[in-house]
Structure formats: structure tokens, C-alpha cells
Amino acid sequence: MLNVGFHRHIVTPPIGVYLTGYGARTGPSVGVLDDLVVDATTFREGEEGVIWINADILSFGAEHVGRIRERIMAEIGVPAERVALCASHTHAGPEVASTHLGDSDPEYVQLLERWAVSAACVAWNDASPAKLRIGKGTCHISRNRRRPEGGPVDPDVLTLQWIGDRPGGIVMHTCHGVVLGSDNRRFSADYCGVTRRTMEHVLSTTQSPSSPVTQLPNYPITFTNGCTGDINPLSQGEDKVVPYGRTLAFEALKAMEASTQIATTPIDGASSRVDLPVVDPPPPDECQARIVELETEWKTSEGAQKKMAGIFANWAKERLRQVESGTCPTSQAAEVQAFRIGDFGIVFLPGEPLVRLGLQIKATSPAPHTWAAGYCNGTVGYVADEESWQHGGYEVLTAPQFYAMGPYKPEAGRILVDCGLDLLRRLFQQ
Predict the structure, then answer these.
(1) 388, CA 20 to 30 Å: which among 16, 164, 316, 357?
(2) Which has the closest alpha carbon to 141: 228, 23, 257, 224?
(3) Residue 158 and residue 170: Cα distance in Å, rounded?
(4) Which residues make Cβ contacts (< 8 Å) with residue 116, sequence separation at least 6?
(5) From the centroid of its chain, how far is CA 139?
(6) Are the C-beta atoms of residues 190 and 92 closer than 8 Å to each other?
């Protein structure tokens, strides 16, 4: 019998902690638009099961994932391959993993890890019998930022509901959390938070006077993003956050209304390590020339431009050091993970995969219902499909300087897709 548990902690940092996601920001946070949360959903069959964590941050670092998993294993015995950590990828959240776009607060990061472990353990221990339903819909709030006219997007909305004494659901959609722009310095879950709150308001009933006091809605909704590396909202601005979030909420509610019941077991999880090949480094003279160019820009610029020039110059210096010492990485380790929850299969991809990678997984998955999530289990920067790689651009060439990972060779995306599909075939025994 399937048992599902859910728990949430509010994880909004103190004012003054730096936000991340934009190089153009030049100061710390000054306020809160809406609270950030970490949600844990557990799916159990007896003592076996999986834990699916969603957090309102840009990304987890591999070191955070390792520590959180170790503590969960010590507390409740769930192994690492059955614990997935996903970031909603809001660009109005705190710096956690190092992206050189903000300064992380070590005390906050330690608390975030503890909150994630706590949410997972409470959800695991409070799980109760439930049935599952899958709903499908579409939502058109996004565009391909690399090819605004005709580039691929993924408008799918997928909902996974658990129905029982303690109902709830997961909403899945593919769109960058950048409705709020670089001028915003207040914490927010962006459109994802509006979607959650809107659906919880519609689905939750009023607590009776005798009900225990709790921060949880009695029909909680959590959010998992897709492969959004090149997918942005149609437009940006604080005035767009609520309309886009509510549009997604209403489409998800319609999907739930038309949902169908699915098999609830078996429950299983698996993961695999892959190596993403890195392009060959430039010769030393090119590295040195780039350093001179960037240092000149840094000396003659101000504000955001000066900050970006400094970030890129430091990256170039490190690359030159690696070239001269012969220590340039030839690959980047990455984890690909997959869960089977009855008839539903999900692949958790690291870093910022471009949309075609998710579409490829969904198109050829052996599972009756599939989702491909990005921003999971550590960051490896952007990973492109081969066609997108040919066109270069920010995701392929510039962003690696923020992450200090990559640039990757064109086959890197295919390596992630193939590994994800292999894991699904193993879980679905095909």
C-alpha cells in the first residue's frame, strides 16, 4: 500500500543576505515579497520509498546535496539514490551554491540544510495511505530566449496528486524563474510561489476551531521545474508575477479536474554518475589577452559592468593557471537520478539543461507518464543539446564563467539524456 507524506518549512533568509541569479545586482536584499519554502514529499511502500524535496533557491551545490542525504540516511535510513533535491530556480532567492553572482551566508546555508532534512524526516514519519492521480494540460507563459521566433518550448503542465486523509499535489512546468528582474532586491519564489498559493487557496478548506494550529495548508501544493535552460517567461516585471503564476495555477487546476487514477506501486529510485566532457582550453596567450581586456574594462567601468568584468577576469585567471599547470579539467562529474512512483517516472537532471533535453526524455520514456526536471542534485552549469551548441551564445559560452564549469562539448547533453532514459528503463524493467 502506498503512503504519502508532506512537510514544509519556510526558509526566507534575513534581510541583508545577498540574492543570486543576476550579475547586475550590486547590493544585498532589502525586503521580502513572499516567503521561500522547502517542501518534502515522501512516497512509501512499507519501509521502502523515495523522498522528493523542492526548495525555493537557484540551485543546490553538490556538497549540500551530499550532507543533506547523509543526515537523512542517518535519521530514517533512506539511501542517497532515493532522495532527490530540486530547486525551483527562482532568481529572487539567496546564494547557496557558488555561482559568483552573490555572497552566500554560511549560517543560512547550514539552516537550509537542516530544514531540508527536517522536512524530509517529518514527511516520512507522517505518511498516510493515498491513491495517485495524474493530470495533464498546457500553459503558454514562456518563450525560447535563444530563438524567440519559433524556438522549442515545453508548454506541458503535469500534476501528480495524492488523494487520502491528507491530500496534496505536485505541479510541474518548464519556465525560468525570472519574471522578477535584476532590479528586484526582495526575496520571492517568483511565479512558482504564486502558483502554489493560488492552488492551495482554491483546494484547501478552512480549518475547524478544534484543528491543530499549523503552518501547512490542508491541501499543500509543491512545484518542480523542468528543463528551462533556454526558456524564459514571455516578459518580465513585478506586475507580471501574479498574472503568470495564476495562469499556471488555473491550468494546473483544470488538469487536476480532468486527472486519471494511476498505479501507485512499485516505488523505486536509482542514480548514476556521468562525466560531461569539457572543451579543450585556449592557449596561454589567448587567456592572457582576455585577462588584459577584462582588467581594463574593470578599471574603466562602474556598477554592474564593473562587477561582471571582475567575475570574468577572475575566471580567466583561473583558466590561465590551469592551462599553465596542465590541470585543466577534461570533464565534469554529474549525477542523473530517476524515480518510479507507480505509473509515473521522473528524471532529475543536474544544472541547467536546455529544453530539448527534457523533450527528448519525455518523447522516448518507457513510463506511462514522465517528467524531466532540471536544477536537481547539484549544479554543473548549462548543458545544451547538440543543435543549440552549434549556435553558441550565452548558455554555451558565457555562463560557464559564472559557474566555473564547462564549457561542455556538444555530446554532453546526449550523455545526460541517455543516462536518464537508461535509468527509467531499469526502473520500468524494459
Answers:
(1) 316
(2) 228
(3) 8
(4) 9, 38, 40, 53, 55, 68, 85
(5) 19
(6) yes
In the numeric block, the cell 531499469 is attached to: 426
> Of 108, 152, 157, whose CA–CA distance to 137 is shortest?
157
266 prior amide bond cis, ω within 30: yes
Residue 356 scores a pLDDT above 80: yes
CA 19 from centre of chain: 16
Q: Which residue has the cell 556521468?
A: 274
- For residue 306, what is the enclosing H or E element? helix 303-325
Peptide bond into 410 cis (omega under 30): no
Query: Which residue do the cell numbers 491541501 mark?
Result: 219
Predicted confidence at residue 65, as pLDDT, reads: 97
Cell numbers 518563450 correspond to 143
Dist CA 352 CA 329 (whole Å): 20
Q: What's the half-sphere exposure (Cβ side, CA atoms, 13 Å) at 100?
A: 17
- Amino acid letter, residue 52: W
Give the pLDDT confidence of 89-142 residue by residue, as tens digits.
Answer: 999 999 897 666 667 889 999 999 999 999 999 999 999 999 999 999 999 999
* First-to-last C-alpha distance (Å) of the chain: 24
pLDDT above 50: residue 339? yes
DSSP 8-state secondary structure symbol assigned to residue 90: B
Going by C-alpha positions, the residue among 126, 125, 157, 159 that lies closest to residue 140 is 157
253 vs 282, which has greater pLDDT? 253
Report residue 260 as a C-alpha cell: 486519471
Amino acid making up residue 421? L
The pLDDT value recorded for residue 100 is: 64
CA gap 65, 116 in Å, rounded: 10
